[in-house]
Amino acid sequence: MARMTMIEAVRSAMDVSMARDDNVVVFGEDVGYFGGVFRSTQGLQAKYGRTRCFDTPISESGIVGTAIGMAAYGLKPCVEIQFADYMYPAYDQLTQEAARIRYRSNGDFTCPIVVRMPTGGGIFGGQTHSQSPEALFTHVCGLKVIVPSNPYDAKGLLIAAIEDPDPVMFLEPKRLYNGPFDGHHERPVTPWSKHDLGEVPDGHYTIPIGKAEVRRAGSAVTVIAYGTMVHVALAAAEDAGIDAEVIDLRSLLPLDLDTIVKSVSKTGRCVVVHEATLTSGFGAEVVALVQEHCFYHLEAPVVRVAGWDTPYPHAQEWDYFPGPGRVGRALAEVMEA
């Protein structure tokens, strides 16, 4: 089996999908000849031509609006927003149009679009290249939201998203593009070529949207995370020597509530970790669900570890970034409660 970076896995997913279905088209800023700012689409234009992989003007609203029209016509656009921070001009198109087409047409029309976007920090991108806006999409009925944590999942989930009849927001943690970053910024990053989840089949496969994965079995406390924070949580549990069960959500909407409830009911303790701003972050929804469904199993209050309620600070990147130290302290807190 080939070993791929997450960039290569995402590219392979689009390649496989375009080869299988002539209706799949890829477009966005600099995704054609240049191959994307992270090279996620490199070679696709040369292979499939300029009508199926092409560059657009710098207009996120125009990119998503065009994708919606093409989807209504019968195509399957997979578009790229160059950074998640740039999605705000397209938010109206996503929430008022794409998310509502099935409902407004009583099922006569669907909107099979995928909106890819690099998300999160850890690359010293500053306040306009480091945001994690996933919670803004999970509040919108009609959208699906995916955040993979590794190349194997990224490819299988992206193919599933492209084949899905409804709009899917596909957020790619750019800190994971080349290796499973665990939050220890002072250490060299292990490349995906040396990680089991860097093994990715060349051909077609899918991973069901809405199904979480237990990355580490444990009985003392449940840690719920997604994206880069999965690797941070694994490192924190190892560093602290705590028998933590780590759940990788993979899909935020739909959410695999059954896996969460099963784990927290077993451990009786829960820590929720995400990189996005704390207030109204997706972790708040997870905590509410744990409280609602696991109250009589809880042995301690549920704790969140997240980013500060500030713009992403360039000068204090590693203080803002929820690293293993902060997660480890949260684990100790719930274990001592």
Give an overview in words.
By secondary structure, this protein is α/β, with parallel strands linked by helices. The chain has helices at 6-20, 44-48, 60-73, 91-97, 101-104, 134-138, 151-163, 228-240, 257-267, 282-294, 317-320, 324-336; strands at residues 2-3, 24-28, 53-55, 76-80, 114-119, 144-146, 168-173, 199-200, 213-216, 221-225, 244-248, 251-253, 270-277, 303-307. It has 2 domains: 2-200, Thiamin diphosphate (ThDP)-binding fold, Pyr/PP domains (Rossmann fold, 3-Layer(aba) Sandwich); 213-336, Rossmann fold (3-Layer(aba) Sandwich). It is built from 12 helices and 14 strands. A 7-stranded mixed β-sheet has the order 3-2-4-5-7-6-12, sandwiched between helices. It has a 5-stranded mixed β-sheet with strand order 9-11-10-13-14, with helices on both faces. It has a two-stranded antiparallel sheet with strand order 1-8. It holds the Pfam family Transket_pyr.
Give a concise summary.
By secondary structure, the chain is of the alpha/beta class.
Whole-number tally of structural domains? 2
pLDDT below 50 for ≥5 consecutive residues: which ranges?
Answer: none
CATH class value of the largest domain: Alpha Beta
Radius of gyration: 19 Å
Order of helices and strands: EHEHEHEHHEHEHEEEEHEEHEHEHH
Number of helices: 12
Strand content of the residues, in percent? 15-25%
Q: In angstroms, what separates the terminal alpha carbons? A: 45 Å
The helical percent reads 25-40%
Based on the coordinates given, report the CATH architecture of the largest domain. Answer: 3-Layer(aba) Sandwich
Multimerization status: single chain
Structural class: alpha/beta
According to CATH, the homologous superfamily of the largest domain is Thiamin diphosphate (ThDP)-binding fold, Pyr/PP domains
